[in-house]
Design brief:
Elements: H1 2-24, H2 26-55, E1 66-73, E2 76-79, H3 84-93, E3 98-112, E4 115-124, H4 128-132, E5 138-139, E6 154-157, H5 159-166, E7 176-179, E8 182-189, E9 205-208, H6 214-218, E10 227-232, H7 238-249, E11 262-265, H8 266-271, H9 275-306, H10 308-316, H11 321-358, H12 372-398, H13 402-407, H14 417-452, E12 463-469, H15 480-493, E13 498-504, E14 515-519, E15 529-536, H16 540-544, E16 548-551, E17 565-569, H17 570-576, E18 586-589, E19 594-602, E20 617-621, H18 632-635, E21 639-646, H19 654-664, E22 669-670, E23 674-675, H20 676-683, H21 685-719, H22 721-729, H23 734-763, H24 779-805, H25 809-814
Parallel strand pairs: 4-9, 6-8, 15-20, 17-19
Antiparallel strand pairs: 1-2, 1-10, 1-11, 3-4, 3-7, 3-10, 5-8, 6-9, 7-8, 12-21, 12-22, 12-23, 13-21, 14-15, 16-19, 17-20, 18-19
Helix pairs in contact: 1-11, 2-9, 2-11, 2-12, 2-21, 3-7, 9-12, 9-14, 9-21, 11-12, 14-21, 14-23, 14-24, 15-19, 21-24, 23-24
Length: 816
């Protein structure tokens, strides 16, 4: 016990002594804490994001036992959907090894007190909530009897839907609401933390699998695909369950279509697309931290050299090497702790910015928050940081010879040759790491420039987009094109602020779905081909600002009684007609074959994303798609997108247009309005995010390196005052002194640049998936980024160099 108290007393004495030393050098202390705050804050922010997305347990019971099935596809392993008949066989085959639940996701219209809106609907098996280990916070879940045909319809609301659509009304249970025109009774509200992340759209309402999905699927082994969710029993290996479900799956597919199913842990499946990006950003954050540690270590080495006399005196008075080592490590710990405090504030600021950027791009973004794991990481990072930059200087201080220190008298020295060499190595390492980050940031800047200058094939100015959905049963016996879409379009076009308006099943960059259909071989193609088919109203291309390459687009003369016509894009013509004449040729398409004549060719449009190439597509005219047309149900019966070109600023018309659409058809669910310019920004969101984060890290690396170089050179110039005074007394002029400092700086930075460029060539493969229109070894970026750092470094070195040149030789020699 006495030994422990003695250790604590010694530690407290070291803390007091270190605080006095730091108080005597406030500039050094503030600079060091600032640099450490940047490094520690960056790593803490990235760890918070990575832990929340990659490591924090899902809000389900024992989530490590939850699995989904994948199957091989054209783009690697793809999500697997099964029929109800197959899943019931899974449940029988795995009853001793796993529990199997399932769900079906879609969209529907909910008539809430706040107004009709399009919601993400999930139809769930009765055991799904219990399989996940989550129950409604208020009310109850579904029972097996609620899948019986004559049972009343019920619904469970998500917490978000309860707040948004019902104002958080605590008396909502037992009330009724219309979903898809059908009355449902509200029986439960899910907890706030609960999100079902299997589908891209977060579930907003939950209904039991029943009349519209389960019953038809029972007799159709290929109908109504469901997404199965498997919970393994304790001690059961995934391979065992895979074998059991593979035997079942083989009974439902043809022999030549059989693919091996693979169970993947639910968390791994959710984060597989973002894991490489987060890994790359973690490395970038770690590089910033390493630069900060190297910077402070170099400065601390210079400080140890300046305190050689003090260290030697303490050693001569009886302080042992371990005592000196402990004192210097304590000082490092104090600096690291202060840096961690500043880094905590910086990380919270960065998280606010990143959370705003990441909210719609990362799965499980709601988990990004400060928690016990982050606090533990911060404490561990504080200790590791103190050891990283403080160990070598502390060892050098403890092992400095007493005689060498006393012989230096009171003279200021920059240290021995070995310490100078070590400082140079640290500075070279800083520059190399900074170059690698700056080149990565430069490549992302080039990518953003390329994306913003891609010819999209349409105009983005003064263009508003929104989605429209009609209840599935409202126009059951009517033509929805005649009775819903055309009257709505007429109402919008009457607005004096509207220059033009058009409807389409798909608008560029905003569409959630598309229909791929078969185009049968004719005299102009050898085989059947695949192409995307879309329905559009006359005037769409004029509203979007798309150029006609030849022929015309649809007009008022294209009706249900006129000759069926179609318009194709240039990719379609080049790929399937060899770039020849398309006008007048016939297209025969659809599973129930129909024929249309090509009357126009449009320019290629970037439909899916700014960075995605155009694909073969053709359009059919909405007025020509009548109820007896095979495409009617797939294209027109439920969902449509509206494009409006305005005379005034588009966002100023959103409220007015929303009211007009609601008045024209109060049964429609109107989606969120957005400008086409915003849609373009959303399309490049992944690259924009990566560019933003890498540029922030690159900027921090540049700042730390340049400020660190300035601080270190300033400190070294101060310690070499007497040496510089002697040089000037012996005839060296000011230009020679400035040249000496600048040459030394340039030599160190040149070495760092060479190593940094080589490091960047190796590490840029981490960014390759985000690059567009630029090579990972782009020569312009490889040249300009190092040049920028060298220029900034030389500017930072110029101030200490001029200070050195202004030394008065007489005053410098008097201090001898």
């Amino acid at each position: 016990m006495n030994h422990v108290f003695g250790w604590m007393r010694g530690f407290c004495e070291d803390v007091r002594f270190s605080m006095r030393q730091l108080h005597r050098a406030p500039g050094y202390a503030v600079f060091t804490v600032l640099v450490l705050a940047l490094g520690i804050g960056t790593v803490t922010a990235m760890f918070t994001i990575s832990y929340g997305v990659l490591l924090k347990p899902l809000p389900f019971r024992a989530d490590r036992h939850l699995f989904e099935a994948l199957e091989p596809g054209t783009k690697g392993e793809e999500n697997f959907d099964a029929s109800y008949a197959e899943i019931t066989q899974w449940q029988q085959a795995t009853k001793n090894s796993a529990d199997v639940g399932f769900a079906w996701g879609g969209v529907n219209i909910l008539d809430a007190p706040a107004g009709a809106e399009l919601v993400s609907e999930v139809a769930a098996s009765p055991n799904l909530f219990s399989l996940l280990g989550v129950q409604p916070m208020t009310g109850r879940g579904f029972s097996a009897s609620e899948q019986i045909t004559d049972h009343p319809d019920v619904v469970v609301l998500s917490y978000t839907m309860w707040q948004r659509g019902f104002g958080g009304d605590r008396n909502v249970l037992g009330k009724t609401v219309h979903i898809g025109g059908v009355q449902h009774t509200i029986i439960g509200i899910m907890p706030r933390s609960f999100e079902y992340p299997v589908y891209e759209d977060r579930a907003e309402v939950w209904v039991p699998l029943g009349r519209n999905t389960l019953t038809p699927a029972a007799n159709d082994p290929y109908g109504s695909p469901f997404k199965p969710l498997v919970r393994l029993h304790a001690g059961v290996l995934p391979e065992a369950v895979e074998a059991e479900i593979a035997n079942v799956h083989a009974q439902f597919v043809k022999r030549d279509e059989q693919k091996k199913l693979h169970l993947v842990r639910l968390r791994d499946l959710l984060v597989r697309d973002v894991q490489p990006a987060l890994f790359a950003l973690e490395i970038a954050a770690s590089v910033v931290w390493l630069i900060a540690c190297s910077n402070v270590a170099g400065l601390l080495l210079a400080r140890v050299a300046a305190r050689r006399t003090e260290i030697a005196v303490r050693a001569a008075l009886g302080a042992g090497r371990w005592r000196i080592l402990a004192q210097f490590l304590t000082e490092s710990l104090l600096l690291s702790a202060a840096g961690a405090a500043g880094g905590l504030g910086l990380s919270m600021l960065m998280l606010r910015v990143f959370r705003h950027m990441l909210g719609n791009m990362l799965p499980l973004a709601q988990n990004i928050e400060m928690n016990w794991a982050v606090w533990l990481c911060l404490v561990a990072l504080t200790l590791v940081t103190a050891l990283a930059f403080g160990t070598v200087p502390a060892l050098l201080a403890a092992w400095t010879g007493t005689r060498a220190g006393l012989q230096s008298g009171g003279r200021k020295q920059a240290g021995n040759r070995g310490q100078n060499r070590l400082r140079s190595v640290l500075l070279v390492g800083e520059v190399a790491l900074s170059i690698a980050l700056l080149i990565g940031a430069g490549l992302m800047m080039r990518t953003m420039y390329a994306l913003r200058h891609v010819p999209l094939g349409f105009r983005t100015d003064h263009l508003l987009l929104t989605s429209l959905t009609v209840p599935s049963d409202l126009y059951k016996n009517q033509d929805v094109g005649v009775n819903a879409w055309q009257p709505l379009l007429d109402a919008v076009q009457r607005n004096p602020g509207v220059k033009g308006a058009a409807l389409s099943t798909v608008m560029p960059l905003k569409h959630p779905i598309e229909l791929l259909t078969i185009v049968y071989k004719t005299d102009w193609t050898q085989d059947n081909v695949d192409a995307v088919v879309r329905a559009a109203s006359p005037g769409l291309m004029e509203v979007l600002g798309v150029r006609m390459r030849s022929g015309r687009f649809f007009n008022e003369g294209d009706t249900v009684t006129s000759l069926p016509v179609t318009v194709v894009n240039r990719v379609f013509v080049n790929r399937y007609l060899g770039g020849g004449v398309a006008l007048g040729k016939q297209i025969r398409f659809g599973r129930t074959p129909m024929t249309a004549m090509i009357v126009g060719v449009i320019d290629d449009i970037h439909q899916d994303a700014v960075s995605a190439a155009s694909t073969p597509e053709f359009y059919v005219c909405i007025p020509q798609v009548a109820r007896d047309n095979p495409l009617y149900r797939a294209l027109l019966s439920r969902y449509m997108e509206l494009a409006v070109r305005t005379e005034v600023r588009p966002d100023a018309m959103i409220g007015e247009l929303r009211r007009e659409i609601a008045e024209a058809n109060p049964h429609l669910a109107i989606g969120d309005f957005s400008t086409m310019e915003a849609a373009v920004e959303d399309s490049i969101g992944a690259q924009k995010l990566a560019a933003g984060v890498v540029e922030v890290f690159g900027g921090l690396a540049l700042l730390i390196t340049v400020v660190g170089l300035y601080g270190l050179l300033s400190y070294l110039v101060e310690q070499r005052t007497q040496e510089i005074g002697i040089r000037m007394a012996l005839g060296a002029d000011r230009f020679a002194v400035v040249g000496m400092v600048m040459r030394q700086t340039l030599a160190l930075m040149g070495t760092g640049v060479a190593i940094g460029v080589a490091l960047a060539l190796w590490s840029n493969r981490l960014l390759q998936g985000f690059l567009y229109g630029v090579s990972p070894s782009d020569p312009w970026t490889m040249g300009l980024a190092p040049l920028g750092l060298v220029v900034c470094g030389l500017i930072a070195a110029l101030v200490p160099a001029r200070r050195a040149a202004s030394v008065n030789p007489v005053e410098a020699l008097r201090t001898e």
